[in-house]
Specification:
Number of helices: 7
Strand content: 35-45%
CATH architecture of the domain at 447-654: Beta Barrel
Number of strands: 30
CATH class of the domain at 447-654: Mainly Beta
Shape: elongated
CATH superfamily of the domain at 447-654: membrane protein fhac: a member of the omp85/tpsb transporter family
Radius of gyration: 37 Å
Distance between the termini: 50 Å
Structural class: mainly beta
Length: about 650
């Protein structure tokens, strides 16, 4: 706090200009010492011919840090105190137990010279200097708490380990007599709410922290309530020592309430034009001005990943009742190259490489080239993606892909064209409602076997689909929820041509819930139901059927390993599924946790799941809770395996299982 203290006449009244209370330094005036003790205020003219007076005492008794014999002129000896000798010391503060807050103690510990050098040897002069510095510090901190008559005396108790004592007398707690906010009436109907935002009232303690915090809240609220050019002056605290009270005065110039005008580009803007920034903004022209909405826009622009620096600020508009929002953006490197190596018991070994230009088609039109080479999967795709498409967090995606997939259930060579528009959620702006609308055309050459005979067969399917989804997220965290629930539904009407044309509809429902049952212990559960209506299983392409088993399904089993099987003991999928998972997420130490789990589920040949004959898997997982989300390692085993099922399955991923 930068403060100025001035004495008014002969009264004990001081005027303080408050700033940062943690750095409070009260200037010393005549009649006031830095440690709070009184000193004469008279002006003295020195006589240059007068003899020197004896040197004054330094204020702290010299400790007996060591003596040495000395020989006098008469041949006798006497002890001489060695002020330069050093010894380790201890220290304590007396008198503040009833008034010291945790904040005051923390600040003193951070700034104390005695504490910073605790345990280090010191001589008498160093002890004196450190004691005086800490006495001044303690007086300043006590005054910041409202004890404006605080005094601190210092002494050193000698011994083998000298003890430095700061004896504090806080005095009376000063309280506010009046609180005046000049100019606030110009805010009109907003004035009462802004006055309440200050949060400082008569009879409150004259606490510098409280006053500074109230000033900050007032500045934030006045900007959020439609006053972009408001000015809030520094608070002035007038302390009256005679009555042990204080008055607080604060000057405010609201500057007039405004409404949002247009988004305009400032000179030097180099990334998005003003129209696209306006699409990202959550406010529209004519809405009441709100500083929180401007801050939200600034964060959203940064999260595009295409901005290295951003300037978003209110600027005067042609209409005096509105305020334009000026934007200046500097570009970030737009290219991304990513690679991935992995192995899964169900998917085999795979390597993935992708290259992305995130702004090849401005604004925010990215192009991604992706390839996958694996023992059971090969893929090449070209994806166009436009973020914030005609609205915040709306993503338009179009993709061309060719893939060759080998699974225990089938082998498929597929060429597909797809596009969808979706409203996304993310870890920075988690949303309650998300949705997607899309379309897909594909041709797939697929090989499987006839269920009853095991004879191989090959069929080519031409499929058109209109997948649609709607999801609600009422949880508290996207990657690591601890409370709340989620519900989601997906429906995809599909038309298939294989010999003859026929239609069917795929439906899937998901729900999960989370509850904190103890400190660091979260109980989580998940349910999934699915159904294909309108066609028998054997008519449906093997790649479009339901399957279960794996790290995102029933743990303990291989990928797609659960459900009915053919004569070769290979899964054949089904028309319906039912799954559940229950797990307890326990934080054991620091960022590490353990997660015991039980999963169950099955695939059925009928259109509706019968909720019977579940395959169960159980195990335990380890979690490392990083800054960007939990890293998951789960180890599971099947409790009632089918023939050929492995006894152990391992899964690694980012984020919780559900």
């Amino acid at each position: 706090m930068v403060a100025r203290v001035g004495l008014v006449g002969l009264s004990a009244t001081a005027v303080l200009f408050l700033g940062d209370p943690a750095a409070a330094q009260l200037a010393t005036t005549a009649g006031e010492r830095t440690n709070g003790s009184a000193a004469p205020a008279d002006t003295v003219t020195l006589d240059p011919n007068a003899p020197l007076a004896p040197m004054p005492d330094i204020g702290v008794a010299w400790p007996d840090l060591g003596t040495a014999p000395a020989v006098s002129a008469k041949g006798g000896t006497h002890a001489v105190t060695d002020a330069a000798a050093e010894a380790r010391y201890a220290w304590r503060i007396d008198g503040i137990d009833a008034v010291a807050t945790p904040l005051l103690r923390r600040r003193f510990a951070e700034l104390s010279t005695l504490d910073a050098n605790d345990g280090q040897p010191a001589n008498a002069a160093q002890l004196d200097r450190r004691a005086r510095e800490d006495a001044d510090l303690l007086v300043t901190l006590l005054r910041g708490e409202g004890y404006y008559d605080a005094r601190v005396a210092t002494r050193v108790e000698p011994g083998a380990k000298p003890l430095v004592v700061l004896a504090a007398d806080p005095g009376a707690l000063y309280r506010l007599k009046t609180v005046t906010v000049d100019g606030l009436a110009a805010a009109g109907t907003q004035a009462p709410a802004l006055r309440d935002a200050l949060g400082v009232r008569p009879e409150d303690a004259a606490n510098a922290d409280t006053i500074t915090a109230g000033e900050a809240k007032l500045k934030a609220q006045i900007a959020q309530r439609g006053f972009p050019f408001a000015k809030v002056g520094e608070p002035v605290l007038t302390v009256d020592h005679a009555t042990q009270t204080a008055t607080l005065d604060l000057a405010v110039q609201p500057g007039g309430a405004k409404r949002f005008g247009q988004v305009v580009a400032l000179p030097g803007n180099r990334v998005f034009d003003a129209d696209h920034v306006a699409e990202i903004a959550r406010f529209s022209p004519g809405d009441p001005y709100n500083a929180a909405s401007v801050d939200d826009l600034r964060r959203a622009l940064i999260q595009t990943g295409l901005i290295s620096s951003v300037e978003v600020k209110p600027v005067p508009a042609a209409d005096p009742d509105t305020v334009d929002i000026g934007v200046k953006l500097e570009p970030a490197p737009p290219h991304t190259i990513a690679g991935e190596l992995g192995y899964g018991t169900g998917e085999g070994a795979r390597a993935e490489l992708s290259w992305t230009h995130r702004n090849l088609f401005p604004p925010e039109g990215g192009l991604t080239l992706r390839s996958v080479l694996g023992t059971q999967e090969q893929l090449g795709s070209v994806t166009f993606r436009r973020n914030n498409f005609q609205g915040r967090d709306r993503v338009l995606t179009a993709q061309i892909a060719a893939a060759h997939t080998v699974r225990d259930a089938y082998e498929a060579k597929t060429f597909s064209l797809s596009a969808n528009l979706e409203r996304q959620t993310n870890i920075f702006f988690q949303k309650a409602w998300t949705w997607s609308l899309g379309g897909e055309l594909l041709t797939s050459d697929e090989r499987d076997v006839i269920e009853t005979t095991g004879q191989p067969r090959r069929r080519t399917f031409f499929i058109g689909a209109l997948p649609t989804s709607l999801n609600y997220d009422g949880s508290d965290d996207l990657l690591n929820p601890t409370r709340g629930f989620r519900l989601g539904g997906r429906i995809s009407p599909e038309l298939s041509l294989q010999g003859t044309a026929f239609g069917y509809t795929r439906i899937q429902l998901d729900g999960s819930a989370y509850r904190t049952v103890a400190d660091g212990v979260v109980l989580a559960g998940r349910v999934r139901l699915g159904s294909i209506l309108g066609a028998p299983r054997d008519q449906i392409a093997p790649s479009r059927r339901f399957y279960a088993g794996g790290g995102a399904s029933v743990r303990g089993y291989g990928y797609q390993a659960i459900g009915p099987r053919d004569v070769n003991n290979d899964p054949i999928g089904g028309r319906s599924l039912a799954e559940f998972s229950i797990e307890t997420r326990v934080k054991v130490k620091g960022n590490f946790g353990l997660v015991p789990f039980l999963d169950g589920g099955n695939i059925y040949t009928g259109a509706l799941p019968t909720l019977g004959r579940f395959q169960y898997g159980a195990g335990v997982g380890a979690r490392y809770y990083s800054n960007f989300g939990p890293i998951r390692l789960d180890v599971g085993t099947p409790l009632n395996p089918q023939a050929g099922d492995s006894r152990i399955a391992v899964y690694v991923s980012l984020g919780q299982a559900f």
